Each structure stands twice: as structure tokens, then as C-alpha cells.
Amino acid sequence: MKRLVILGGGESGVGTALLGKEKGFEVFVSDKGTIKKKYKDVLLNNEIEFEDEKHTELKILNADLVMKSPGIPDKVELIKKIRSANIQVVSEIEFASRYTDATLVAITGSNGKTTTATLTHHILSQDLDVGLAGNIGDSFAKQLLMENHQNYVLEVSSFQLDDISQFQPKIAVLTNITPDHLDRYDYKFENYIASKFRIVENQTSEDYFIYDADDPIITNWLQDHSIRSKLLPFSLKNEIKEGAYYNNNEITITIDNNKLIMPTKNITLEGKHNIKNAMAASTVAHLLKIRKQTIRESLENFQGVEHRLEHVLKINKVQYINDSKATNVNATYFALESMDAPTVWIVGGVDKGNDYKELFPFVNEKVKAIICLGVDNSKLFEAFGNMVDIIVETQFMSEAVKIAYKVSEAGDNVLLSPACASFDLFENYEDRGRQFKYAVRNL
Description:
By secondary structure, this protein is of the alpha/beta class. It folds into three domains: 88 residues, 3-Layer(aba) Sandwich (Rossmann fold); 208 residues, 3-Layer(aba) Sandwich (UDP-N-acetylmuramoyl-L-alanine:D-glutamate ligase); 132 residues, Protein-Tyrosine Phosphatase, Chain A (Alpha-Beta Complex), CATH 3.90.190.20. It has 17 helices and 20 strands. The strands form three sheets. Strands 7-8-6-9-10-11-12-13-14 form a nine-stranded mixed β-sheet, with helices on one face. It has a six-stranded mixed β-sheet with strand order 15-16-20-17-18-19, sandwiched between helices. The protein has a five-stranded parallel β-sheet with strand order 3-2-1-4-5. The longest helix has 16 residues. The N and C termini lie far apart (59 Å). Belongs to the MurCDEF family. It is found in: Cytoplasm. Cell wall formation. Catalyzes the addition of glutamate to the nucleotide precursor UDP-N-acetylmuramoyl-L-alanine (UMA). It comes from Winogradskyella vincentii. This is UDP-N-acetylmuramoylalanine--D-glutamate ligase.
């Protein structure tokens, strides 16, 4: 019996444990932190051995296969020991993908991947049996076990792609690449870029790669590297012969001379970046033979993603907007770009080596006050201190929202778009966004 050791007892770890047990592995789960009660109960009910608050090396280094949670970096001593013992380390999407014949649509990118994945799933689910997994909702492994869909839309991060060996999506989507998570890639942008492109490394000429042709980082990489998949670019700027482009409020998608033209005036998602997300999702749908009418209706009734430019409430004619999912500068760029009123901006958290320069034009033009919400806000004060009349700091969401209420006036926006990770003051970006919404509703 092969021994599967799982490092990390969260959603992906416990899902892998259940699938591993079903597939005949001897399974052991080890978490250096505390495993949440809901996950402990699942492990206990399924008689899966586990430990938390420690890693017992004797029980780990005798593995045949190790699945590590995406949150654990390679530079951890234990991971080095596992690798030097020649034990294969895989991510959950790699492990799970070995046990399915389903059609896989994998979506990655620095920004837009959650919206694109959720939108793609929304369109496909009108006509197909399809699951949504990866970074969203139930883990891929657990869904294979419980629901076993014929198709999956997977939102995959660079960390999940770092530990693949055979993972081969039928359709791969790359929304964009901007500097992010550089702390995990030795502060080398090229390492992060290479990691994102692993999404296509096992694809063949029978598979498809959908990508943003307006992104110079993607197009430069493609000029220097050959990939086997069929290329289907999308663009806001240029006409595309095979792929998708946007012109005169219409999206045109062409695949094998099969053309689809769709008006965009009724699309619910706002902003140029969401036209791109819609092009990517519609291209996937067109490839999988979804009818034009279904695609169009789905784009028009899609409700968006929680914590992504989510309109919370209007109070005294001030619109409060939750964009807690903006954990990097580029995401905040799109948020500020789409503001059409003077904006009180709540920003800050764990800085991942951010360069705030690209935000300067929007801050000058649209931002009237900045509220810094982080343990260390010195970099924000340095970057924006001279640009706005009001810049204050706090470490409490309730206080940040109260200050925003005081300094805003009728017609303004109050935007939570942190451009940073949340782990200094919050459990995760969802916790941050929910605290914001709670504070706004309690004004």
C-alpha cells in the first residue's frame, strides 16, 4: 500500500486525504498549525490519521508521495528534506487530475482569474455538467469524489502550478501577468512568469491556450518559447483572426472560421478588465459548443464575485464598494480606473514588494482621502503622503469605515481596495471584506 502524506489540513489537504483514501493510499495528514474543527471532524469520521501543531519527520519522510498545501513555500527545511529523499511532491490539482477523464478548463493569472473562472462556470453550467474548483469553493479532489462532473473549471494559482508534473488541461486560460507574490519567487519576476506558464507545459496540439494578447509580458514570453497548444488570443486593441477581440461595443470570437458576434452593452460587469474576462470566458464557451444565446444571456445576468468591486450600500448618497480581493497593485489599478466619482480609498496590509507608481495618475485625479489599514503603513505614507490632503492610519476596520463616513460627502465613493495581502490584521481577504461590509451596515 502506497503512503500518501499530506502537508496542510485545510480545504485542499482534506479533499486530497479523502480522495487518496478512496484510491487505496495509506494517508497521513500533518499540519504545523491548528487544523480547524470542521476539517478535524471530517478526518476523524473517515478514520484518517492526522497530527497538528507539529510535523513529525519520521512519519513524513517515509512517504511514497507528498501533497503540500499551496501555502507552504519550497524554502521550508522540511520540504528540502522531502525532495532530497527523492519523494515526489505534488499539488492537489496534480494529484486529483490523475483520477479523472473530465474536460478540464484551467484558469490562472495575477488578476481576474476568480471572476473569469466564476463567469466561465456560470455560462457552461447552463448547458453542461460542470464543477467549479481549485482556489474556489470545495477542493477539486473532494468534488471528484463527491460529484464527479464531466467538466471542471479550475481556478489555479502559481503555487498550485509549481507542483504539477502531468496536469494537462484541455483549455488553459491566462488572464494577465503582473508582479505578485514575488516574496515566494526570490523577488525574481521571471520565476513567477515561468510558474504561470506551467499551465501549458503538458498541453498538446489537441489542446487550447487562451490569453491576453495586449499583455506584453505574455506576448514576449510566447515569442521566446514555443508551446504546442492551439493559440486563441483575446484583445481590446487589435483585430484577432483566431480568438476574440472587442470593437464598437461588440465582442467577436472566431474559432476555425466559426464566428460569433456579441453586443456588450448589457453586460453586468463594469470596466475594461471585465470585457477581457468576458472575452476569455466566452471563448471557452464557444470552444465547448455552448449556444450564442446562452453565452449572451449568461453575460447579462452574471452577478459578479463577492469582494470584487462589490457595491455594498449607499448611505447619504455615498457608495461603499468592497474590493477586498484586490491583494496586489494591479487589481487596485483596475478598481481606481473604474471609479467615476471622488473616492475615499482604504488601502494597506502586508506589502508584497509593491510598486505604487502606476497608481499615481488615478490617485491624483480621483482620490480625495486615503485611509491606511495595516500594521506598517510607512510605505503608503511615503508614496501618497503629498498627493492627498487627508491621509490617516488605523488598525481597525470599524474605525476605517467611520473615518471614511466622516470625510466623504454626497456623490463620493468609499472604496476598500487594499493592494496588499490581509494576513497582518485579518484571517484572509474574505474576512477583511466581510468586516468592511459589517462596519458599513452598522454606520
